[in-house]
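Students often ask why we bother encoding 3D structure as a string. The short answer is that it lets us treat folding as translation between two languages. Here is a chain of 616 residues written in the first language.
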Amino acid sequence: MSLLSRLLNRRFFYFTVLLLIKGALAWFVVFDEGPSAMTLVTEIPFFWAIFCLIEWLATKRKILYYMVANLLFSLLYFTVLMYYKYYGIIVTYHAISQADKVTKVGNSTYSLLDPYYLLIFLDIIVIAVLVWRPRAKPIRQAAVMKPINKPVISIIFGISVILCLFNIWPNRASMNENKQAEEMGILNYEVYTIFADSTEDEEIIDKSEITQQAIDSIKALQSPEAPRYFGTAKGKNVIILQMESFQDFLIGLKIDGKEVTPNMNKLAAENIHFNNFFTMVGQGTTSDAEYVVNTSLYVPKHEAATEHNVDKALPSLPKLMHANGYTTATFHTNKVEFWNRIELYKALGWDHYYDQAFFGDEDHVAFGASDEVLFAKTAKQLEKMDQAEQPFYAQVISMSSHHPFDIPESKVKMQLPEQFEDTLVGNYLLAQNYADYALGQFIDDLKADGLWDNSIVLFYGDHQGLSLYSLDRKEKDLLQDMLGHEYGYSDMFNVPLVIHAGGIGSPALIEHTGGEIDVMPTIANLVGVSMDNQIHFGQDILNESSNLLPMRHFLPTGSVITDNHIFLTGNAYADGSNYSLQDNTVTSFGTSEEQYARGMELLKLSDSYVKQLPDK
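And here it is in the second language, the structure alphabet:
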């Protein structure tokens, strides 16, 4: 009997070995301690349960079914690797259902790929070539004639299922999804999430209990009866600029004595700069930032807001401003269908939107027309809108500095030292330097058109650009040299907020904690619009000095940001970790269990509130 024939008759064994190697690769990338004896205990029983089903049910072409199982397991492990590299958590079926978005951000996705990940599919190609070549037909027939003893299969199946349940059951209460997956096993965790979601009886808090007073009480707010700056900018235009992947550490950063973002540096120095302001996006990243800023609601638990909440009649900043005499419009150079923005914009109630149909695709960078085109055409449209009697609210979404930060050579405006070449960090700095250059032109246009002095202009980063999970050792060292401390969570989620508005005091650096959910009530206060009758989970950060920001996505469930720390849950609160907002060091004190519990309660209230809104 040939070697190939002997291997085919030992299919149970060698497919176990192949998949175990692939599982070990996934564990090596995802879990801090890498593969261990636990990998054997948690992954092998799942393989064997599936192999037993094949042996029971398939009377012919068993090798084909083994190959199909091998391919499916390989695809799942590969997806786990790729998803973790950006999001830092284990992928579930919720995210896999959004896989069509991957094809639309191809370069961004492919940049996360380490070439050796593709080895996960090598055995499939080799086996397919060897087994399905014409000369291998007699070998296949000989192998099929040697079935595995069915009583033995029954015993193996029973033991495997028991072991799978034993791995799942004790760990199902863990708050931290990554720890759940490590203790259950990746494959067990994937199945568990499906059954857990289908059987979970999610608590819905009655809408009568979801009041602004209840929300403010949970957040421990003590809002003043006469808030500062109320109506300071009444009647002025409002322009909100959402800056792609812009993190706060860029402000003031110099490389070889040259400013990376000179225009943002000047804005921050001459206006109000919040330097402890945090992104609060989920799976929808940029589109989620649009959602959070314009609703003051938290993103959904599993999906992007544009896929989950846009069927509802959402209370929003565009609707609030429209009701108070403003015309509203949003500007983005991509197609409005991307991330289902067409439904998001209907739900938010924008009067007008301007997408690729308006901007065209000239001077293409990333996924559409460059920031220079975005800002030039937007400035002209804002000038037209300013000629009307009523003021306007406009949101402008930049995009050229999108991951993987591969801007054309003609857009490179600065020279970096040699050590930055061919690194994600170097590409990021060049992309943000270009985005800052285009921003400077926009500011000049606003000033030339008389809009700058007659508008509130607010700038914030939408989400992190440099994901901690996708950086290699060299890139982390580059960041540590630039920042003076190890790059970590407090740097990754920290985006800037800069507010230009006359009448709110001298230029100032404000170190109070804030998040994207706070933009809406802050703007409302400045333009003198009451939010007493509109549920919101953010706060006016010009009047409040303490904050509590429950986080979803990119961090384990239950993670929160407080005034001085980012808290990451362990299996529960007790074994969680606190990271200083100042330098990302791990501290032995920080977020209290009471703050953690209040953060979780806020998420429940937000979810329940949205579920009970009328359809749009």
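Translate back mentally: The mean pLDDT is 90. Keep this in mind for the problem set.
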